[in-house]
Amino acid sequence: MNKKDLNSAKTACFHLIKFRPRSEYELRSRLLRKGYDKEIIDLTIAELSRIGLIDDLAFAKLWVESRIKKPLGINRLYFELKIKGVDKDIIEQVINEYGSTQKEEEIVRDLLKQKLKRLANLDKKKIKNRLWGFFLRKGFSKDIVFDVLNELK
After folding, report:
1. Using CA atoms, how far apart are residues 50 and 52, in angstroms rounded to an integer?
2. For residue 58, what is the enclosing H or E element?
3. Long-range contacts of range 11-15, CB-CB < 8 Å, 24 or more positions apart?
4. Which of 40, 49, 136, 147 could share a disulfide with 54, CB 3.0–4.6 Å?
């Protein structure tokens, strides 16, 4: 193990974290792509975790807080965190804190009101099809979207 490589790996991580918080998986992946040894990566991650710069729970909370303003559904948030390499248990914990089907339904209803204004000149079937796709791409539950769209007159 080379002290120079360890410092270089830490510097690379600091550079990435400077722009936005990162999950452990993201940092490991970046260091691997840059060609660092597994031992150097493990030591770097351990050190950054010890000093609190890598914390997947805090990362997941920040990610959900920032993305929930978009607004996005629970499924999309889950998927994004999974891609970032966050552990399934952490994802479920964070999503349970921030999301509920009741909240999700309120968001769908609010977005529906906004979207209906823009789609008013289309026929009912086309409106429903576009809204269905829109809500699913945003990560909302199929059941909630189905129920809300069925209430459309």
Report:
1. 5
2. helix 56-67
3. 12/36, 13/44, 13/48, 13/53, 14/53
4. 49
Tokens matching residue 127: 């409106």
Q: How far apart are CA 120 and CA 69, in angstroms?
A: 25
Query: What CATH number is given for 1-54 in this structure?
Result: 1.10.10
Task: Please write the tens of the pLDDT for every residue from 37-80.
Answer: 999 999 999 999 999 999 999 999 999 888 877 888 889 999 99
Phi-psi region of 35 (alpha: psi -120 to 50; beta: other; left: phi over 0): left
Segments making up each domain of the chain, as ranges = 1-54, 56-99, 101-150
- CA Rg, the chain, in Å? 21
Q: Can you tell me the distance from the alpha carbon of 118 to that of 121, in angstroms, rounded to the nearest whole number?
A: 8
Successive 10-residue mean pLDDT values, the chain, 153 residues: 85 94 95 94 94 94 86 91 96 85 84 88 88 94 92 76
